[in-house]
Amino acid sequence: MSPRPSTRPLPAVRLDGRQTYDYRNIKISFGTDYGCCIVELGKTRVLGQVSCELVSPKLNRATEGILFFNLELSQMAAPGFEPGRQSDLLVKLNRLLERCLRNSKCIDTESLCVVAGEKVWQIRVDLHLLNHDGNIVDAASIAAIVALCHFRRPDVSVQGDEITLYALEERDPVPLSIHHMPICVSFAFFQQGTYLLVDPNEREERVMDGLLVIAMNKHREICTVQSSGGIMLLQDQVLRCSKIAGVKVAEITELIQKALENDRRVRKEGGKFGFAESIANQRITAFKMEKAPVDTSDVEEKAEEIIAEADPPSEAVSKPVLWTPGTAQIGEGIESSWGDLEEEDEEDEGGSDEVTILDSVKMETEDQNVGNHIGDDTPIVLSDSEEDEIIILEPGENPKKTRTQANCQQGKVPSKKAIRKKKQQPAD
Amino acid sequence: MAGLELLSDQGYRVDGRRAGELRKIQARMGVFAQADGSAYIEQGNTKALAVVYGPHEMRGSRSRALPDRALVNCQYSMATFSTGERKRRPHGDRKACEMGLQLRQTFEAAILTQLYPRSQIDIYVQVLQADGGNYAACVNAATLAVLDAGIPMRDFVCACSAGFVDGTALADLSHVEEAAGGPQVALALLPASGQLALLEMDARLHEDHLQQVLEAASQAARDVHALLDRVVRQHVREAALLLGD
């Protein structure tokens, strides 16, 4: 997005046609198990999986369950991701997600307690980045919260000292109690804060000055703010970003609710659900581009401008013939003349496509080559084959098809540009 | 913590301060003779020590050297005795790593790194006693240490934390106030231009209160700046006296 020196003010459009505050398409699909989901933000894909386990609680928090988040940057996500290298980015993302989801207390950890001081649920959220096309934070936070909302833990009952853990067949699993859904919104800063883009894709991330992440929920409560990349912010920029984030989060929360509702309905009605169902629609064999609306109203004017300013194309002259002795000259893929050799008496078609036939010739010996050399401009006859006619094709002419037989007449007058060289009779 | 009032009806906090009041700050520069620059700061009960080495040639991998700027390398560590419980913290700890990254981000923005291409500046910060506002104390100590080392900076980098309780913004949180679980903001400011080098916020805060909290934190950072400025001038005066000018 660079400012162009033109008389007309251009509408600000990003590389992929989005406006400055537009998100890419978000697609949420669920797996067959509860607590498994894939979130696609444009082409960035994150897989989230929630699992649970009964453990002893932490010593200083005996009545609270344990939440554990882990984001992994899979090596398939981007060429630069290697097992040891990406530690800075990984630490930053993990800490941001932890602060966003844990410190904001979106999950009621007290409800995860089974027996105080002895047994609590440990909820583990594993996020895997499958494809990196920018803005990992947003996609990961959406995946985490969707997976947590989708997850069902096994039902537990306590009788005295006995804890009974019911299997999935005995009792329906219980959803987690979630207070609110914090969602991260990323802002990329360019040119010392002049330009502010929401949801940067991978290319924009490479050239941005810095990133500001604001996590909010739909009640307009800010859960986390994190600035990174060494940008200098002003207070009013932060306040402006928080307002934009509020709007975006409301939209995304609605989308999440709809997706969860759809999945719940499909499972209840006994329809098919799971990743296989959602992936099948994408038809791997067909390339499909998502359409982005582009303003084409003044395309003609712009095109005229460009054409007027551009240089006219230079005259390109191609020389398919090598003008040096001793080089083999092979037929250039034009129509084969083998069939014509047998039809020597047949008149060729005058008015139809005229194609010059070049016979394939073999390499001349040096003596004959030297002898054949007439001048720089004239083509050199190279062959001592029986067929005598060699028509050299030059660009810009209408090639003519001619009979090339040793003993047959040269029936056609060659076109004015074709240079016809009589074959020198080979020495006996 | 049940029964603990963070802000009483008369407007006093747990340690008797008012809402916008900072804790007592005492700082000293040139604490170590060996290092290029060093500083020690006490913000209430939070004690932090910062040491700067540099600018010097790249240690380790030469390939990481930047052709047009200096590389700023920050390491943060908390002493095992710094918190209420003695806790052994491994070196590659995620939280320590994150703090190091944040310090690096803060100082890369403030130090004039273009003056020292292909060099490295090391900033090591150690927290000796953690009583809330760890990040802020580290940044303030590191600023003084960088100034002591004579490395040119755009401006002081002053940091402070702030919170929000009962509709009032509190400046410079202590450990008790942090542990209560309310919203907390940590902010690093370049006072002359008012630009934020780093902004970090945790826990739920309604959007309408954001401005109030940011204002309180900025004002507190400016108060810290006034204090640090005085410390630096005092130090320079002492050094000049010793040199016999």
From TrEMBL, chain A:
SUPFAM superfamilies: Ribonuclease PH domain 2-like, Ribosomal protein S5 domain 2-like
Comp. bias regions, Acidic residues: 340-352
Cell location: Cytoplasm; Nucleus, Nucleolus
Cellular component terms (Gene Ontology): cytoplasmic exosome (RNase complex); nuclear exosome (RNase complex); nucleolus
InterPro entries assigned: ExoRNase_PH_dom1 (IPR001247), ExoRNase_PH_dom2 (IPR015847), ExoRNase_PH_dom2_sf (IPR036345), Exosome_comp_Rrp42_subfam (IPR050590), PNPase/RNase_PH_dom_sf (IPR027408), Ribosomal_Su5_D2-typ_SF (IPR020568), Rrp45 (IPR033100)
Family: Belongs to the RNase PH family.
CDD domains hit by this protein: RNase_PH_RRP45
Source organism (scientific name): Phascolarctos cinereus (Koala)
Protein name: Exosome complex component RRP45
UniProt KW Nucleus keyword: yes
Stretches assigned to the Exoribonuclease phosphorolytic domain: 23-154, 180-245
GO BP annotation list: exonucleolytic trimming to generate mature 3'-end of 5.8S rRNA from tricistronic rRNA transcript (SSU-rRNA, 5.8S rRNA, LSU-rRNA); nuclear mRNA surveillance; nuclear polyadenylation-dependent rRNA catabolic process; rRNA catabolic process; TRAMP-dependent tRNA surveillance pathway; U1 snRNA 3'-end processing; U4 snRNA 3'-end processing; U5 snRNA 3'-end processing
Automatic annotation (TrEMBL), chain B:
Coiled-coil segments on the chain, per record: none
InterPro entries noted in UniProt: ExoRNase_PH_dom1, ExoRNase_PH_dom2, ExoRNase_PH_dom2_sf, PNPase/RNase_PH_dom_sf, Ribosomal_Su5_D2-typ_SF, RNase_PH
CDD domains reported in the protein's UniProt record: RNase_PH_RRP41
Domain Exoribonuclease phosphorolytic: 21-152, 155-219
MF annotations from Gene Ontology: mRNA 3'-UTR AU-rich region binding
Subcellular location as annotated: Cytoplasm; Nucleus, Nucleolus; Nucleus, Nucleoplasm
A GO CC term attached to the entry: euchromatin
Keywords noted in UniProt: Acetylation, Cytoplasm, Exosome, Nucleus, RNA-binding, rRNA processing
GO terms (BP aspect): defense response to virus; DNA deamination; histone mRNA catabolic process; maturation of 5.8S rRNA; nuclear mRNA surveillance; poly(A)-dependent snoRNA 3'-end processing; positive regulation of cell growth; rRNA catabolic process
Matching PANTHER family: EXOSOME COMPLEX COMPONENT, EXOSOME COMPLEX COMPONENT RRP41
Description of how the protein assembles with itself and partners: Component of the RNA exosome core complex (Exo-9), composed of EXOSC1, EXOSC2, EXOSC3, EXOSC4, EXOSC5, EXOSC6, EXOSC7, EXOSC8 and EXOSC9; within the complex interacts with EXOSC2, EXOSC7 and EXOSC9. The catalytically inactive RNA exosome core complex (Exo-9) associates with the catalytic subunit EXOSC10/RRP6. Exo-9 may associate with DIS3 to form the nucleolar exosome complex, or DIS3L to form the cytoplasmic exosome complex.
Family recorded in the similarity comment: Belongs to the RNase PH family.
Protein name per UniProt: Exosome complex component RRP41
Annotated source species: Phascolarctos cinereus (Koala)
Gene assigned in the entry: EXOSC4
